[in-house]
Fold:
Amino acid sequence: MASEILRIHEELTSGKISCTELVKAKLSELEKNTHNTANFLLTEIALEKAAKVDEKIKNGEELGLLEGIPFGVKDVFLVQGCPASASSDFLKNYKSPYTATAIQKLLDAGAIPLVKENCDSFGHGSTNENTVFGPVKNAVNEELVGGGSSGGSAVNVAKGYTTFSIGGDTGGSIRQPAGFNKVYGLKPTYGRVSRYGIMAYASSTDCVGPIASSIEDIQLVLNTISGKDYHDQTTFVSEPVDLTEAIDASTLSVGYYTEFIENEGLDAETKAEFLALVDKLKAANIEVKPLNFKNADVLVSTYYALVMAETASNLARLDGSMYGGRIDGDSLKDSYAVTRSENFTEETKRRIVGGNQVLSQGHSDEIYTKATALRSQIISHFEQDLKEVSIIISPVSPTAPPKIGGSLKDPLAMYLSDIYTIGFSLGELPTLTAPVVTETGLQITATKAQEELILKFAKFLNEII
Ligand code: GLN
Structure:
């Protein structure tokens, strides 16, 4: 698909449509939508910004590429003066005191925020059913889940309600819903985009990235939101991604993990489609190397031990005294207990309890310290492999999106379904979901800061498949 941003830019600059008309049409689609994607519409600020863009057009001023382009924001980001609920009862009435860096950069470029998008509460989930705003329904089939946790964002892009959306990805939350709804989703290298102003889930793997319907739109948004930020010490300076020159296929070597593909949980059709791609790459004279990841299951246990520990710590700040809904009990301690028991969802409480167990005295050496040691091994494993190959391809999800209604009853099965996305999060590696090859897409990974290579490879794939 060609760039939607460019198409809309041309419509605006040629006067085919006014920005106000565009924004009104999108807001109305969002309002009527039956997929449960919109937690809050940002009508007032969107129309105010659209009027300014129209004024510029009227005065014959030049428009930047993102100026007047409507976008969505996962409801875990702060946008000053607007609600930020994390799809929880806790923060349902909370208003943001400042704006997240990534969103501010888009506002500075003139893009128009339309909606705070439904997601799994605090990013906890793989289906977008863990939300107090009702489960997000898949863009292709409303009986199926939208994927999580950035499900509302992916469905909005797939349905064309937003031109692009900004999601958060701790262990797959951009990539998996992008795959479930057949759009592109990029988790950048950890630190490429500032996390300032996104509610922390697991700070050591939280990433901010775009969901869009084309590779070019991913590139444009990524270049806008990247960069060093005084407020986030993990951020680094990055070169803008430039896609003008095509990839030199003769220099490529592509790897894939045999254990990912021989995994008995992997859907047979996805496996066959993935292996057919391997054959096509070989037919295009590209070197393809099978790689080993013995004990791929360790990815799930390591990831969940660490993220539960981190989320238990991060969410300790929500006790009713500083933010969100407070419920008074008989004593201060009682107030904390009632506030937290009533306001968090079951899935979030499961993770807080699990995380506190992981960190508790007597268990932390066995679980937390061991998980951090395993993570170091996982990181060096990927680093070694990415010296052998320039790109790693993998499935996004072992199975097709499940029907709405079942997944939260079997959390372990839900956690296991994250097997293909979470490793690259632990490795801090940039990874794109492209909506190609299998029903739930294909993941493309490269070494740190190599987003340009990934996006060029995705373009190349579109030519050969
Ligand atoms: N499904 C994963 C989890 O629940 C990833 C979620 C995310 O990236 N926010 O942890």
